[in-house]
Amino acid sequence: MPHQYQDLITVFNATFSDSFNTKLELGGDEPIYLPADSEFNYHRIIFARGFYQSGMHEIAHWCVAGPDRRLLEDFGYWYEPDGRTEQVQSEFEKVEIRPQAYEWILSLSAGLKFNVSCDNLNGDFEPDRLAFMAKVHNEVMSILDNGLPPRVEALSNALREFYQIAPLTKEQFIVQ
After folding, report:
1. CA–CA separation, 41 vs 173, rounded Å?
2. pLDDT tens across 40-91, in order?
3. What is the DSSP pairing of strand 22-26 with strand 32-34?
4. Has residue 134 got a pLDDT over 80?
5. SS3 128
6. Helix axis angle, 52-64 to 5-20, nearest 10°
7. Helix/strand/coil for 119
8. Which of 19, 95, 130, 144 has its CA 20 to 30 A from that of 120?
9. What is the pLDDT of residues 166-175, one digit of tens each?
C-alpha cells in the first residue's frame, strides 16, 4: 500500500484528536507545533509540504513533549537551522536522539524504511551519520526493553492496524 500523507493525518487524528485535543495538519515549507489559541481551539502539529516522513518526525517531537511543553509554540525547544558548526551539530544530535528513536518505531509501524536525519546539509563539516544512527538505535533498544510510552504505543498500534503490519521486533531495527 502506498503511503499517502492524508492517511497519516487520518490515523493520527482518529487516535489523538479527542484524547489530546491535537490534530496533524498539512503545512507549507516549515513544520511547526502550535498550541490552541483564540483562533484554533485545538493544538496543531503542522508538517512540511505533504512529506509523509516530515509528518512522522513532527509527531515524534510531539510524543517527546510533556504536558507543559505541549502548551508552548514548537514545544519551547531550541532549534538551530541548517549550517551548524560541529559543536552546535553535536548539541543538536543530543536532543534529536529520542525523537528520532520514536520516529523509527513509528516508521516501521507504518511499514516504512527509516533514515536518521542529521539535518545539516549546509554545515562546514560532514556529520557522522552512522555514529548518530547507532545512538538512535541504542535509544530504540532501550525503549523496546522498557516498553513504549503510551502515545507512541497508541500510534504504533493504529499505524500497524491501518497498514496491516505485524508486531515489531528488535531484529527489525538495523543500523545501515
Report:
1. 38
2. 999 999 998 888 999 999 999 999 999 999 999 999 876 656 566 667 666 7
3. unpaired
4. yes
5. coil
6. 20
7. coil
8. 144
9. 999 999 999 8
Pairing state between β 32-34 and 43-47 = antiparallel
CB 165 within 8 A of CB 3: no
Separation between Cα atoms, residue 140 and residue 156, nearest integer Å: 14
| pTM of the complete model | 0.90
The dihedral built from the CA positions of residue 152, 98, 8 and 74, taken in this order, carries a sign that is positive
DSSP 87: H
Residue 155's identity, in one-letter code, is: L
Which amino acid is present at 83?
G
